[in-house]
Amino acid sequence: MIYVAILGFGVVGSGVAEVLTTNQESIDRRVRDEIRLKYILDVRDFPDSPYADKFVKDFSVIENDPEVSVVVETIGGATVALDFTRRALQAGKSVVSSNKELVATHGYDLLQLAKEKKVSYLFEASVGGGIPILRPLTSCLAANELTEVCGILNGTTNYILTRMIRGGLSFDAALKEAQEKGYAERDPSADIQGQDACRKICILAALAFGQHIYPSQVPTEGITGITLEDVAYADSCGRKIKLLGRAIRREDGKICAYVAPHLLDGEEPLAGVEDVFNAISVTGNAIGEVMFYGRGAGKLPTASAVVADVIDAARSMGQSKYLDWGPGGEDITFSPDTLSDRWYVRLHAPAEEVRARLGEVQFLARPGATEGETAFLTGRQYTRPELDRALEGLSADSVIRMYH
Ligand code: HSE
Prior knowledge:
This protein is α/β, with parallel strands linked by helices. The protein has helices at residues 11-22, 24-31, 59-63, 80-90, 100-116, 134-140, 155-167, 171-180, 189-192, 195-209, 228-236, 299-315, 351-358, 384-391; strands at 2-7, 35-41, 55-56, 68-73, 94-97, 121-122, 146-152, 239-249, 255-265, 277-284, 288-295, 344-348, 362-364, 373-377, 399-403.
């Protein structure tokens, strides 16, 4: 018998309890053992829950119960969750997590601790919700030298952008709708400011390239600045605005990761990813480009990934499974400012001034454009500092927007 404890009975934690119970028979068959939920830790009371007899408030009950061999951490954040994860691993229990903040900030240390204790620290659900991505990255694509991982990593922002693009809603109206539908958190700042995508690209980069990348090393811009004017300019040239997390490995082995809005050509596969869906594209020297697509959030899709990890941890008792990477450091990254790209720029300056500085660019038009507003797409030859320099000296604060 393998006993499981769930920490945190929120959306994901309750989904895990539901999947473990509903699919008990088929799970037992796969593990060739019996997996049973023994405890649920939460500070709140749930007297009407079907799992009412399993609730505890004191983590040491779980920590000190030798029968519990797998702990599911769905608390979130990097304070209490870090303490409980460390203590569970120290106590020789495998930990399964959906907590991207914790993995992105402390993943290396926790993986080391898991290895030392010969248990697993697994977190498939931390990136892409229900999409199998971390395991394919580390096993199915293991033969490749991976060079790039890029994707739509946040369902809330993709929903907001989709409603702006297809429904003509303003950012505020689309955010309100996302909250009403339960997609966005009540405090949606980590989603709309890009931190959630930042944490996910850190985890993907660490797994793809084998070294810990910290969120502080990843320049991050969210979607709060995007307006319907930008959407209209993008539409005028067959493009869609998407928030992308991107990580690249240079030939010298250095890594660059960033999160920013991009105006994607409508023909690109990522441009067609809509609503709360996520998609991740991985490039390797043998496979070329491969894409993963599916529901990046939500109770049962995320629980599906968590429970798969529980099954994996149960099957590999006594050993550390799959995931591993090396330490991070200042000297392993390079700045996205050195990457050349095509840029979308919207500014207050006459088109002639832009032409005088940049030569021929693709000027964009939108119905109802205000007097003195100019928008354009550059060629692919500019790094961000080069573009800034080329536009220097235009009237102060003239640049309204600058996206990849
Ligand atoms: N807030 C996240 C999103 C949930 O919208 O994608 C899944 O990590």
